[in-house]
Design a protein that fits this description.
271 residues; mainly alpha; 3 domains; two-stranded antiparallel ribbon; 13 helices; 8% strand
Length: 271
């Protein structure tokens, strides 16, 4: 059996029951009205169905809200034990049991299906059994237990088959739960309808996905600048170079040049 930490233990009428936080948090919270109606039913009629305990342990698997009400009002209860090969199979049993309830909301169902798939991806749920029984034999007690024993290949399609939805729905559920994780939004808050937009309405899946998976702005590719072609340099005669240089002289500079040339060559030059 896995070692458990952070567990609240309760005792009632000589029966010890352990509340496992991970198992408890798998169950979508009831609304105030739902909890009030359940509380009234337990007080008036007592516990009509037994609490489910993991056989060989004292861990509560199903009936957390009913157990809380029974202990609060000192109401008697009965328990039923079911064997599970490991924690992941027990978690899948809890999820499937919740999905089968009439009051499950679309938001809660989305969370449960995603967590069912995540449990399968962990790769547990085979033949290992802390009590020494084979995985196949421990699953005979109910259809839910058989469905919980799923191998981790083709996860989305198997979850879809077990929960009665399409594969694309399961894939969308997984993407949505990961988006909530990215944004730091508790999954149970989404499941209970507490995730609201600026107008105080339930936030849509689209807005959550858009925020979590916001596309990065496309970086424009730099425009390629064509290389400058080098023009062939013209070849000038020496006298042409001299003339070009003379064109750059001022009038005064030309007159001075004429004076020098006349003196050196002993001639008269006319501009």
């Amino acid at each position: 059996m896995h070692r458990l930490t952070g567990i609240t233990r309760w005792g009632f009428l000589g029966v010890k029951i352990t509340i496992d936080p991970e198992f408890r948090d798998l169950i979508p919270p009831l609304t105030e009205e739902e909890y009030y109606n359940l509380e009234g039913s337990v007080i008036a009629d007592g516990l009509l169905s037994p609490l489910v305990i993991w056989k060989g342990t004292d861990i509560l698997v199903d009936g957390h809200n009913r157990y809380k009400i029974c202990t609060q009002y000192n109401k008697p209860y009965t328990t039923k034990e079911i064997s599970f090969s490991d924690r992941e199979v027990a978690k899948r049993f809890i999820i499937l049991n919740q999905l089968g309830r009439r009051n499950v909301t679309p938001e809660s169902a989305s969370k449960l299906r995603a967590e069912f798939a995540e449990s399968i991806s962990k790769g547990q749920g085979g033949n290992h059994n802390p009590n020494g029984r084979k995985g196949k034999s421990v699953a005979k007690e109910s259809k839910l237990e058989n469905q919980a024993l799923i191998k981790p290949d083709k996860t989305a399609s198997q979850v879809a088959k077990a929960t009665g939805v399409s594969t694309s729905t399961v894939e969308a559920d997984l993407k949505l739960m990961k988006a909530l994780d990215v944004l730091g939004i508790p999954r149970n808050d989404y499941a209970s309808g507490k995730v609201l937009d600026d107008k105080g309405k339930k936030r849509s899946k689209t807005s959550i996905l858009n925020e979590a998976y916001a596309a990065k702005p496309k970086q424009e590719k730099p425009v390629a600048i064509p290389p400058i072609k080098k023009q062939p340099q013209p070849i000038f005669e020496p006298w042409e170079i001299v003339l070009m240089q003379l064109d750059l002289l001022t009038k005064e500079q030309r007159q001075e040049l004429m004076r020098i040339l006349q003196t050196r060559w002993e001639c008269i030059l006319v501009l």
